[in-house]
TrEMBL record:
PROSITE patterns with a match to the protein in the record: GRPE
Keywords from the named record: Chaperone, Mitochondrion
GO MF annotations, alphabetized: adenyl-nucleotide exchange factor activity; protein homodimerization activity; protein-folding chaperone binding; unfolded protein binding
Family of this protein: Belongs to the GrpE family.
Protein name listed in UniProt: GrpE protein homolog
Gene Ontology biological process terms from the UniProt entry: protein folding
InterPro entries: GrpE (IPR000740), GrpE_CC (IPR013805), GrpE_head (IPR009012)
Physiological role: Essential component of the PAM complex, a complex required for the translocation of transit peptide-containing proteins from the inner membrane into the mitochondrial matrix in an ATP-dependent manner.
Length: 179
């Protein structure tokens, strides 16, 4: 009888312990769910940060690629700009028939530069205020024009299709009326 009672007591104790364990697991289960939620939020944060980092990386690479292309176009076009300068000087010193031949060739070369390389001629600077971003002053001369006015354009300036200066115009600038 004692054995039976002991077995019954042990069985009853096991059942109570089992219930305690079941009820005790509920806070642990809630805690586990909370841990999973925190892990999920953390993973979402990491994913969002990585997506932003990737977007920044793409933007950086695109900007670097654009800059390399701009530099390559500038480098490729500079020898052609020297040829244009030669056409301009030859046209200015040539007379009659030679001038009539050179002008259309120069115009055609300007068209090719703009269409194929995105390089365009900076509009004439004569009479305009000196702009250090667009002009390179090679001489300062007294004149009737106000100070810092472009008097003469020795070499034309050129811009990229985005408006960046490939080569500034080389100019003579007024120092103002002589005193």
């Amino acid at each position: 009888r004692f054995r039976r009672g002991g077995a019954a007591l042990a069985a009853a104790g096991g059942a109570v312990a089992g219930r305690r364990q079941q009820h005790g697991d509920e806070p642990e289960a809630a805690s586990g769910q909370e841990d999973l939620r925190e892990e999920l939020v953390s993973a979402q944060d990491r994913l969002t940060r990585q997506a932003a980092e990737f977007q920044n990386f793409k933007s950086r690479v695109q900007a670097q690629e654009k800059e390399r292309l701009r530099q390559a176009l500038a480098k490729a076009s500079k020898p052609l700009l020297d040829v244009l300068d030669d056409f301009r000087r030859a046209g200015a010193s040539a007379g009659g028939a030679a001038k009539e031949v050179l002008a259309p060739l120069r115009k055609r070369l300007l068209g090719v530069l703009e269409k194929e390389l995105g390089v365009r001629l900076l509009s004439s600077s004569i009479g305009k205020p000196f702009d250090p971003e667009m002009h390179e002053a090679v001489a300062l001369t007294p004149g009737e024009e106000p100070a810092d006015t472009v008097l003469e354009e020795l070499e034309e300036g050129f811009l990229s299709i985005d408006g960046e200066v490939i080569r500034p115009a080389r100019v003579v600038v007024s120092s103002g009326p002589a005193s």
